[in-house]
Design a protein that fits this description.
The complex is a heterodimer of chains A (304) and B (478).
Chain A (H helix, E strand, L loop, with lengths): L1 H5 L24 E7 L5 E9 L3 H20 L2 H17 L1 H12 L3 H21 L3 H5 L1 E3 L5 E9 L2 E5 L7 H12 L3 E5 L6 H11 L8 E4 L3 H10 L5 E3 L5 H11 L5 E3 L20 E9 L2 E3 L2 E3 L1
Parallel strand pairs in A: 5-6, 5-8, 6-7, 8-9
Antiparallel strand pairs in A: 1-2, 3-4, 4-10, 11-12
Chain B lengths: L21 E2 L1 E3 L2 E3 L6 E5 L6 E6 L3 H20 L2 H17 L1 H12 L3 H22 L17 E5 L5 H14 L3 E5 L6 H13 L6 E3 L4 H9 L5 E5 L2 H10 L6 E5 L5 E4 L5 H13 L11 E5 L3 H13 L19 H16 L3 E3 L15 E4 L6 H4 L6 E7 L2 H9 L3 E2 L1 E5 L3 H10 L4 E4 L14 E2 L2 E2 L6 H4 L5
Classes of the chains: A alpha/beta (304), B alpha/beta (478).
Chain lengths: 304, 478
C-alpha cells in the first residue's frame, strides 16, 4: 500500500473565480501562470493557471453583487454576524490547506504561514462580532430642538469594489473583505495579482458558510485591467484601493468621481495583524437621519 | 389673491444695516484689495440695485490667504480646546446680538424673504456656532479616539442659497477641531461672509484663523488645487463636486461634498391633507426652492391625488410673492439672472416634454429676478423635470399606488439627499424611511434643520456629514 501510494499522482485543483455564488472560469477563456514565491522572494515552482479575468467578468460580478445587496443589507445584523462566524469555522477546518497555499504564495515557512492563517481566521471572528455593534457606535439619537425623535443610523453604501492588497494575499485580503460585508455591503474583489490562489480558495470557504451568493465575488487577474472599469462603473458605490499602487490609485480615484463613489485611498500597512479598529468599516457606511414626530404636550394644547 | 385680503406693506427697516460702498478680501485679519485690483458688483436680486463693490480674489490672493491660514494654524491648533470654545461661543453670541442686521443684509443680498432669514437662517447660524463651540474641549469624547488631531488648513466653498448658514456649517466645526479656514462665498452673495469677518474681529479671533476670499469659481478652483490645503469642504452643484473629486485624486486631502438633490416628498392616503399641503409648500417653496434638499418631486398616492392637488393649488394661490423685506412675503426673488434663466429653461423643457404646467395668478415685480410658484402634473419618471435638479420653485407631481412603488420611484434618482413621508402610521414612517436611499428623511415635516442632526447625501448628492458629532469627522485626522 505504501508503495502504490508513493507513486500516486495527486489531483490538481482547477482554480476558478467566485461570482454570484458559482465558480466560473473567466468568460475570456484566458489564464495566467501562478508560481510559488521562494523564501528569498524569487520565483518558485508552478502552482496553477489562474483565470485572467476580463472586463466582462468584472461587470458580471457587479451584477451579482447588486443582486445580492438587497438581501444582505436587509438581513439582521445578528444574522450577518452568525454567517461571518461560520466563515471562521469553515476556515478553521481547512486550516492546513490555507497554511500550504499562503506559504507558497508568500514564501513563508510553515510556522509563519500558520500564524498568518490563524490571524485571518481570528479576523473573521472579530468582524463577526462587529456586525451588531457598529450601529450603536456610529449612530444614535440626536437631541434636536423640537418635537422629533431624530435618529441617525449607519447603512451600507452598496456595492464596493475592493482592490485587495498585493503582498498580504490572505490576511490582507480577509482584512479588507470582512469589514465591507460585515456592515451589509456586497463586494467585488480583485485578488492579489501574483498570489491569487488563497483568495480563490477563500471563495470555496465562503460558498459553504451560508453566505448568500453574490455577497462576495472574487476575481483574479490584473487590477490595472479590471480596475478602471470597476472604478467608473455606474452601479458601483465605493472602491477600496488598498492594493493599488500610487499611480493606479490616482487613475482609479479620478474614474470613481464619475458617480462620486466613496473612495478609500491606499494606506501603508506595516502589520496586518494589528488591531484594525473601525477604520475599514466606516468609509463604506452612509448615515441616514430620520426625523420622526413625537408630538408634544404643552401649554399650546396637546398634539400627540 | 388681492381680492380677499389686502395686506398693507410691512417692510423691515433697511436702516439696521450699513453696507459700505466697497469691500476687500479678508486675509490675515485685514481687509485688503485683490492682488490684481479686480472687483465685481453684488446686486440685490429683488431690485437689481447694486449693493456694493467687492474685491475679486485670484490665484495670488488664494496663495496669500492659505499662507495666512497656515501661519495661524500652529497656534490655533495648540490652544486648549476650552479657549477655542470660548472664541466660538463669543461668535455665537455676537451673531445673536447682530441677527436683525444680518437677516436684513442676507435678505438684501440673497433675495429670500426676511421671514426666513429672521426665523430660520439666523437662529440656525447662531445655534450652529453655539453647538460646535461646546465640542472644542470635548473632542476626546467624540468617538474618534484620544486627542484627535485637526487636519490643517481647510479650503471651504459655499453656495449662495443659505450664505451665512453654509458659512456656519463650514467654519464652526473646522475651528472647533483646531483647523484654520480659507472660505470662498458665492459671487452673488458675498456680503454676509464679509460681515462675518467683522464679527471675527469683534470676537478677537486671532489673525489668519478665518480668511474670506470673495470671488468666482476660478478662485475656488485655485483653493481646491492649492498643495497646502489639507481639507476641502464644498457645498454646491454635483457637476462641480465631481470636478473637485477628480482634482483631489491622488492627494492626501480630505473631502466632504454636499451636492445636489431631487428629494421625493411621499404623501400616503392616510396623511392629514392640510398638514401635508403645508409640508409640500415648505418642501419646495422655502427659499424659492433654491435648496439642495428641496422636496422637488411630490409622490402622491393615486387615490388622493385630485383632492391633494386641489388643496395645494388653493394654498399656492394664497402665497405672497414680492418684496423680500416685507414681513408678509412668502416667496422672494430668485438669486440671480443666471439662475432664473436656468429655472425658466427647465420649466420650458417640462412643457415641451408634455407635462402639464400650472401657476397661480401671480403678478411679478418689474425689476429683479422672479419666478412664480409652478406645478407640473402628468409627470413621468422619464421627464426632465422629474430627474434634473431645477433649484427653483418648481414642483413635479407623480403618483403611486403601493408603498413599494413609492419607494422605487423615490429611489429612482442619481441623487439621494432628502425625502419626506406623510402618513399617520408610525410604523409606515419607519418602514419606508428604512428603504429610502437618502441621507435625511423627514416624516410629517420637511426642511427642518438642527445643529445636532447630521446632514448629507447618498449617491451623487455627495459624501460626508455636516452637523452633529458626525460633522467633526470631516475635520479630524481620523
Amino acid at each position: 500500500m505504501s508503495e502504490s501510494s508513493s507513486t500516486r499522482l495527486s489531483v490538481f485543483k482547477t482554480y476558478k473565480l467566485y461570482v454570484g455564488g458559482k465558480f466560473p472560469r473567466s468568460e475570456s477563456g484566458r489564464v495566467y501562470e501562478v508560481t510559488a514565491k521562494t523564501s528569498s522572494g524569487g520565483k518558485g515552482k508552478w502552482l496553477a493557471n489562474a483565470p485572467l479575468s476580463s472586463r466582462k467578468d468584472a461587470r458580471d460580478a457587479v451584477v451579482a453583487a447588486r443582486k445580492a445587496f438587497g438581501g444582505w443589507s436587509g438581513a439582521t445584523a445578528y444574522n450577518r454576524g452568525q454567517i461571518l462566524y461560520r466563515v471562521a469555522e469553515m476556515l478553521e477546518g481547512r486550516r492546513e490547506q490555507f497554511v500550504r497555499e499562503v506559504g507558497e504564495a508568500e514564501g513563508l515557512s510553515k510556522s509563519k504561514a500558520a500564524a498568518v492563517v490563524d490571524a485571518a481566521i481570528d479576523r473573521w471572528v472579530w468582524y463577526a462580532g462587529w456586525t451588531d455593534k457598529i450601529g450603536q457606535l456610529v449612530g444614535g439619537a440626536n437631541p434636536v430642538a423640537g418635537p422629533y425623535l431624530n435618529l441617525s443610523t449607519p447603512e451600507p453604501t452598496g456595492v464596493v469594489t475592493v482592490v485587495a492588497p498585493q503582498d498580504s494575499s490572505f490576511l490582507g485580503l480577509v482584512s479588507v473583505i470582512a469589514p465591507v460585508i460585515a456592515t451589509g455591503n456586497t463586494a467585488v474583489v480583485i485578488a492579489s495579482e501574483k498570489s491569487p490562489l488563497p483568495a480563490l480558495s477563500l471563495g470555496e470557504v465562503l460558498a459553504t458558510s451560508d453566505l448568500p451568493g453574490g455577497v462576495v465575488n472574487i476575481l483574479s487577474g490584473k487590477a490595472a485591467e479590471m480596475g478602471p472599469h470597476l472604478a467608473s462603473h455606474q452601479d458601483v458605490n465605493a472602491i477600496d484601493l488598498a492594493g493599488a499602487g500610487a499611480e493606479l490609485a490616482k487613475e482609479l480615484e479620478i474614474a470613481a468621481a464619475d458617480n462620486l463613489k466613496r473612495v478609500l485611498r491606499p494606506q501603508p500597512v506595516d502589520d496586518w495583524t494589528a488591531d484594525p479598529g473601525t477604520a475599514r468599516m466606516t468609509p463604506f457606511l452612509e448615515t441616514k437621519t430620520v426625523w420622526h414626530p413625537t408630538g408634544s404636550l404643552g401649554a399650546g394644547g396637546s398634539s400627540y | 389673491m388681492a381680492s380677499l385680503f389686502e395686506y398693507a406693506p410691512a417692510p423691515e427697516s433697511r436702516s439696521v444695516v450699513d453696507i459700505a460702498p466697497s469691500y476687500g478680501l479678508f486675509i490675515d485679519g485685514e481687509f485688503t484689495e485683490a492682488a490684481d485690483g479686480k472687483v465685481f458688483k453684488t446686486v440685490s436680486p429683488s431690485s437689481e440695485e447694486v449693493l456694493a463693490e467687492i474685491a475679486q480674489a485670484g490665484a495670488a490672493d488664494v496663495e496669500r490667504a492659505v499662507k495666512a491660514a497656515r501661519r495661524a494654524f500652529e497656534k490655533w491648533s495648540a490652544l486648549p480646546g476650552s479657549e477655542r470654545a470660548k472664541y466660538l461661543f463669543r461668535i455665537a453670541r455676537i451673531i445673536q446680538e447682530r441677527s436683525r442686521e444680518l437677516a436684513v443684509l442676507e435678505t438684501l443680498d440673497n433675495g429670500k424673504p426676511i421671514r426666513e432669514t429672521r426665523d430660520a437662517d439666523l437662529p440656525l447660524v447662531a445655534a450652529h456656532f453655539f453647538y460646535y463651540a461646546g465640542w472644542a474641549d470635548k473632542l476626546d469624547h467624540a468617538g474618534y479616539g484620544a486627542n484627535p488631531r485637526p487636519l490643517g488648513v481647510a479650503g471651504q466653498i459655499i453656495p449662495w442659497n443659505f450664505p451665512l448658514l453654509m458659512l456656519a456649517w463650514k467654519i464652526a466645526p473646522a475651528l472647533a477641531t483646531g483647523n484654520t479656514v480659507v472660505l470662498k462665498p458665492a459671487e452673488t452673495t458675498p456680503l454676509s461672509a464679509l460681515f462675518f469677518a467683522d464679527i471675527c474681529r469683534q470676537a478677537g479671533l486671532p489673525k489668519g484663523v478665518v480668511n474670506i476670499l470673495t470671488g468666482y469659481g476660478d478662485a475656488g478652483a485655485a483653493l481646491v488645487e492649492h498643495p497646502d490645503v489639507n481639507k476641502v469642504a464644498f457645498t454646491g452643484s454635483t457637476a462641480v463636486g465631481k470636478r473637485i473629486a477628480r482634482t483631489v485624486a491622488g492627494t492626501d486631502k480630505k473631502v466632504t461634498l454636499e451636492l445636489g438633490g431631487k428629494g421625493a416628498n411621499i404623501v400616503f392616503d392616510d396623511a392629514p391633507i392640510d398638514q401635508a399641503v403645508e409640508g409640500i409648500v415648505t418642501g419646495i417653496f422655502f427659499n424659492q426652492g433654491q435648496v439642495c434638499c428641496a422636496g422637488s418631486r411630490l409622490l402622491v398616492q393615486e387615490s388622493i391625488h385630485d383632492e391633494l392637488l386641489d388643496s395645494l393649488k388653493r394654498r399656492l394661490s394664497s402665497l405672497r410673492l414680492g418684496d423680500p423685506l416685507d414681513k408678509n412675503t412668502d416667496i422672494g426673488a430668485i438669486n440671480s439672472a443666471e439662475q432664473l434663466a436656468r429655472i425658466t429653461a427647465l420649466a420650458e423643457t417640462g412643457e415641451a416634454e408634455g407635462a402639464e404646467r400650472w401657476s397661480p395668478e401671480c403678478e411679478l415685480p418689474s425689476a429683479g429676478y422672479w419666478f412664480a410658484p409652478t406645478l407640473f402634473t402628468n409627470v413621468t419618471q422619464a421627464h426632465t423635470v422629474a430627474r434634473d435638479e431645477i433649484f427653483g420653485p418648481v414642483l413635479s407631481v407623480l403618483t403611486f399606488r403601493t408603498p413599494d412603488e413609492a419607494v422605487a420611484k423615490a429611489n429612482n434618482s442619481q441623487y439621494g439627499l432628502s425625502a419626506g413621508i406623510w402618513t399617520e402610521k408610525g410604523s409606515r414612517i419607519l418602514a419606508v424611511a428604512g428603504k429610502l436611499r437618502a441621507g435625511v428623511v423627514w416624516a410629517n415635516t420637511f426642511n427642518k434643520f438642527d445643529p445636532t442632526s447630521p446632514f448629507g447625501g447618498y449617491k451623487e448628492s455627495g459624501f460626508g456629514r455636516e452637523g452633529g458629532r458626525h460633522g467633526l469627522e470631516g475635520y479630524l485626522d481620523v
